[in-house]
Design goal:
- α6 runs parallel beside α8.
- A hairpin with a 5-residue loop joins β18 and β19.
- Helix content is about 20%, strand content about 20%.
- The longest helix has 24 residues.
- The strands form 6 sheets. A 6-stranded parallel sheet has the order 2-1-3-4-5-6, with helices on both faces. Strands 13, 14, 15, 17, 20 and 22 form a 6-stranded antiparallel sheet that branches.
- The protein is an alpha+beta fold and about 550 residues long.
Length: about 550
């Protein structure tokens, strides 16, 4: 009820003229549909669907603005002197890996990504400039990981090991892998990340937010696009499978999966990433999706650097000829799961202002259990032979609805903050450890009606699951990036919930289909005890046809309480 009241109240205020008053404070705020969306005209040639926003509602008016929470942007460097960011930047709190200084401001005029991400999180509010962030009073730090060598050591420095990272509560990571292979990642490597990440914030764990990827249709053969399973699964980026990381999908202004947003069982929740933000009057000749709203945020200052530069006209905010803002300090075409992740990072900062005692597990749990289910009739992806490759929304045995497109749904800031303020911490973590089976004789991978099956019994007393990690090995080879990979991996819980961990008809190139480290988040709150089943099927394989490979092993780790 409170959520409905807040939404109605916000709409009423808007309709009574508050938008004009707010515009006097932050003149581009009215174009930031991801913050407040009452169906107004924004940048783009379609209007956003009413109410598709982050649920900020009256939080900012109640001074829930992320005050006292430090958020780091691990990305390209942020222009820390930007007029709409500088007041929130922690002095000498950032790190430049290239020159070992505290100023990560990009040298390259094209390196605007980090500055755009930072503005989505924490652009300063009510200062008469541009727009504002989801958490407009949060403090900002920048680590220019993507402008540097992007080494493991640099990532660990930014995530937990560096002096500047020690007081960071929320870590935004708007980057990913575009691999079409499955990288190796050992159990020791998993622990080398998850242990230190859990130890941050004096043992509460920092909130690590990461973009899922923009590979639903990118560089994809037509047969994969037609299958509608997503070109490259988000789990191919091993960091997206970590327990400490929330992997974020993108939703557009119509309230549906953004056209590019990567799919997979490793998703946690969705943020708002929009589409491309062009306007026909300024930039004709593009595909229809290009004219749907994107995100308005900060850009590198001036009209000679960044994304919004003279000579690149895309919408009414473009170039120094813009009548909305002629400084070119802002851009109206930011998108991607790169934009969706910082909307969630900002909400995490609001939650931590409301309750600084929340652990990373608490924040994950609250965001998932308060998220809004979108597109409830999301269609299943079905193979020509009738096999369901990826279902739409699946209701698990605990009553939680999960989608390989949306995770648990679109984050609702108002409800999440309300729950955060009175949340009782989750019980201590119970970790089953890695359990494995490798039979003497590998199991032939048959068609959809005769998958290879391996089972493992979990005996730990996990009453409620938080996540499941798994791996498998087979000798199934597929050395092609243009022919859809025909093998499907399904994990079945002791309660009977089925999760498509790796769908058939996606894109993969492998000499032997093996995964050391994948994740499924579809089993939240189910009991972990009992027998888990892994099914691996060559979906297009005809009945009676000779198997092209065999399943050699299966391992699983269940975490919960």
């Amino acid at each position: 009820m409170r959520q409905t009241i807040l939404r109605t109240s916000a709409l009423a205020v808007a309709l009574l003229g508050a938008t004009a008053a707010q515009a006097q404070n932050d003149p581009l705020y009215r174009y930031q549909w991801h913050l407040m969306n009452y169906g107004q005209a924004v940048l783009g040639d379609t209007r956003p669907a009413f109410g598709i926003d982050m649920g900020i509602d009256d939080l900012h008016d109640y001074n829930i603005r992320g005050r006292g929470v430090v958020v780091s942007v691990v990305d390209q460097g942020v222009e820390i002197a930007h007029p709409d960011l500088a007041a929130n930047v922690v002095p000498n709190g950032s790190w430049n890996f290239n020159d070992n200084s505290h100023d990560p401001t990009p040298v390259s005029g094209g390196s605007s990504h980090g500055t755009m991400v930072a503005g989505i999180v924490a652009a300063v509010g009510w200062n008469g400039l541009g727009g504002r962030g989801v958490a407009p009073s949060a403090r900002l730090k920048s680590f220019n990981y993507l402008d540097a060598a992007s080494t493991t050591a640099q990532l660990q420095y930014a995530w937990w090991d560096g002096a500047e990272s020690k007081d960071v509560s929320v870590v935004n990571n708007s980057f990913g892998s575009t691999a079409v292979t499955i990288p190796a990642f050992s159990e020791n490597e998993v622990q080398a990340y998850e242990g230190p990440m859990s130890a941050t914030r004096n043992g509460l764990g920092a909130i690590y937010v990461k973009s899922a990827g923009n590979d639903f249709i990118a560089d994809c053969p037509k047969a994969v696009v037609d299958a509608n399973v997503g070109c490259k699964q988000t789990g191919l980026d091993r960091r997206n499978n970590m327990f400490n990381v929330m992997t974020i999908a993108a939703v557009n202004a119509a309230g549906k999966r953004s056209s590019y947003s990567s799919a997979g069982a490793a998703l946690w929740v969705s943020g708002l990433g929009g589409e491309y933000g062009r306007q026909v009057a300024y930039s004709p000749g593009y595909a229809a999706v290009s004219y749907n709203p994107a995100i308005v945020t900060t850009d590198l200052s001036g009209c000679a650097r960044g994304s919004n530069v003279n000579g690149n006209v895309r919408n009414a905010l473009s170039t120094d000829a813009s009548t909305l803002d002629n400084t070119c300090n802002y851009v109206g075409t930011m998108n991607g799961t790169s934009a969706a992740a910082p909307t969630v990072a900002g909400v995490a900062a609001l939650m931590l202002q409301a309750n600084a005692r929340l652990s990373f597990r608490d924040v994950r749990y609250i965001l998932a259990t308060t998220a809004r289910q979108l597109e409830p009739n999301q269609p299943a992806a079905v193979h020509a032979n009738g096999t369901v490759l990826v279902p739409g929304w699946t209701r698990n045995a605990a009553g939680r609805s999960f989608s390989n497109w949306y995770g648990y749904g679109l984050v609702d800031a108002a409800l999440a903050v309300e729950v955060a303020g009175k949340f009782k911490p989750l019980p201590r973590l119970v970790d089953s450890g890695w359990q494995r089976i490798a039979p003497t004789d590998a199991v032939a991978i048959g068609g959809a009606g005769a998958p290879a099956r391996l089972q493992i019994a979990i005996g730990n007393d996990i009453r409620k699951i938080e996540t499941v990690q798994l791996g498998w090995a087979s000798n199934y080879a597929h050395a092609s990036s243009t022919v859809p990979f025909p093998v499907q991996v399904t994990l079945v819980s002791p309660s009977g919930t089925r999760s498509t961990v790796f769908p058939a008809m996606t894109r993969l190139n492998t000499a032997a289909f093996k995964a050391d480290f994948f994740a499924s988040n579809a089993f939240l709150d189910e009991p972990g005890q009992g027998t888990w089943t892994l099914e691996v099927a060559d979906v297009p394989l005809a009945d009676g046809a000779a198997s092209k490979g065999a399943l050699a092993s299966f391992k699983i780790r269940v975490l919960g309480h």
